[in-house]
């Protein structure tokens, strides 16, 4: 099992290109199921999760060709309507095939995802919405089974804001008979990106980016070409890294307009940030200031940035209160940060982070995707050598992070388990 070995203390300097957004690419790949025509995608990040999604679609009969970050998919020969447990258990986003399959083919069998290290993330809102659209849903041997002759438009209000739930229902509604109104819809840029692709495919959608999306169903969709938006979480992670280590970096292929809450918070921490149409420059020449935060749905501060900003707070001047409002178990990185010398206490959904002047390297273990990023940031700022185990979590959502960091001057290398000793 690969690990990362980091020798801390190096300032970050130079340019880095931000990859396409994982959380946008996954539903967009699933949208290929909505048409028999080719879908040409650009800026698809090369990640374990996107590869897993392509493998799942391939098992269903979707043909795909990849060249770097360009992917072409064609679902004209779909011969399986099932998403098996073996793939769903490794990536909960597999549930996103449910809406497209039942909309186009009238049936879907998707394994229940099971537990998740950062929270339950139930699929009941997906099921409730599809039932409102006329699907008959049953649970059979660990599978969600949906059947319908044709989905029919309806007004759907989810009990909570759910990004994947909004995406699944959006993809289902575009082929439904009549008008669907999604109330309490997620407003995330990744939802907007999916809607923009669907519109290119012939869907009739209004209100995406607000909490009320109106979809007028069409009989069929056609092929399209689309470029996936840049990953705001990857961009934010690199900004947290330079905030913790000091230095001056330029992010290319990024969009400051969708990063408002993160940029505001890092500005409070002391980063000097300037932005352009597709770039962000950030420099840090002092110890960061502690910044309190509460995670919220977009346009609030993303839960996916909480762990990385906590790593920054670990070496900051002052004390920060961090409140996690989205997932119940998203403080699993705290005990590992404390192994590096961080001073953090947890009480339910609240963490109190008292900044220390210096972290010290140690062996730590990643427990989830964003936790692994926070440990890398802490390792970059720590004195001595930090080894991060279980970085397969990191590879799910970051494209060659260690290579990009090394190009910025970080002393970081990937080592196999055999090389550890």
TrEMBL record:
It is found in: Cytoplasm. The keyword Cell division applies. Residues 7-404 form the Enolpyruvate transferase domain. The gene is murA. Belongs to the EPSP synthase family. MurA subfamily. This is UDP-N-acetylglucosamine 1-carboxyvinyltransferase. CDD domains: UdpNAET. Its main location: cytoplasm. The active site is at 116 (proton donor). InterPro entries: Enolpyruvate_Tfrase_dom, Enolpyruvate_Tfrase_sf, MurA_subfamily, RNA3'P_cycl/enolpyr_Trfase_a/b, UDP_GlcNAc_COvinyl_MurA.
């Amino acid at each position: 099992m690969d690990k990362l070995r980091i020798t801390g203390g190096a300032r970050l300097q130079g340019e880095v290109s931000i990859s396409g957004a994982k959380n946008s690419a996954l539903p967009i790949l699933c949208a290929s199921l909505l048409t028999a025509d080719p879908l040409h995608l650009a800026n698809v990040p090369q990640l374990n999760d996107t590869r897993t999604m392509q493998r799942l679609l391939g098992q269903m009969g979707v043909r795909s060709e990849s060249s770097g970050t360009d992917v072409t998919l064609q679902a004209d020969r779909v011969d399986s309507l099932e998403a098996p447990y073996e793939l769903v258990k490794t990536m909960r986003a597999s549930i996103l095939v449910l809406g497209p399959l039942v909309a186009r083919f009238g049936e879907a069998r998707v394994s229940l995802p099971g537990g998740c290290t950062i929270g339950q993330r139930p699929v009941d809102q997906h099921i409730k919405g599809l039932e409102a659209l006329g699907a008959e849903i049953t649970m059979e041997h660990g599978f969600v089974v949906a059947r319908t002759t044709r989905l029919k438009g309806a007004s759907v209000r989810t009990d909570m804001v759910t990004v994947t739930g909004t995406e699944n229902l959006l993809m289902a509604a575009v082929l439904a008979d009549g008008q669907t109104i999604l109330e309490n819809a997620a407003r995330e840029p990744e939802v907007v990106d999916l809607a923009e692709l669907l519109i290119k495919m012939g869907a009739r959608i209004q209100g995406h980016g607000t909490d009320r999306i109106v979809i007028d169903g069409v009989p069929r969709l056609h092929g399209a070409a689309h470029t996936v938006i840049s990953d705001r979480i990857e961009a934010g992670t690199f900004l947290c890294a330079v905030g913790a280590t000091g230095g001056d970096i330029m992010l290319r292929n990024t969009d400051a307009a969708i990063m408002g809450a993160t940029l505001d918070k890092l500005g409070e921490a002391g980063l000097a940030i300037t932005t352009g149409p597709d770039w962000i420059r950030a420099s840090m020449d002092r110890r960061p200031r502690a910044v309190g935060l509460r995670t919220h749905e977009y346009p609030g501060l993303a839960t996916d940035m909480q762990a990385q900003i906590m790593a920054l707070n670990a070496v900051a001047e002052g004390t920060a209160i961090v409140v996690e409002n989205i997932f119940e178990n998203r403080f699993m990185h705290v005990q590992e940060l404390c192994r590096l010398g961080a001073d953090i206490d947890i009480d339910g959904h609240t963490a109190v982070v008292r900044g220390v002047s210096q972290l010290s390297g140690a062996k730590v273990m990643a427990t989830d995707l964003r936790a692994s990023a926070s440990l890398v940031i802490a390792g970059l700022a720590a004195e001595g050598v930090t080894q991060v185990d279980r970085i397969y979590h990191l590879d799910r959502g970051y494209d060659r992070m260690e290579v990009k960091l090394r190009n910025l001057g970080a002393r970081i290398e990937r080592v196999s388990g055999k090389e550890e000793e």
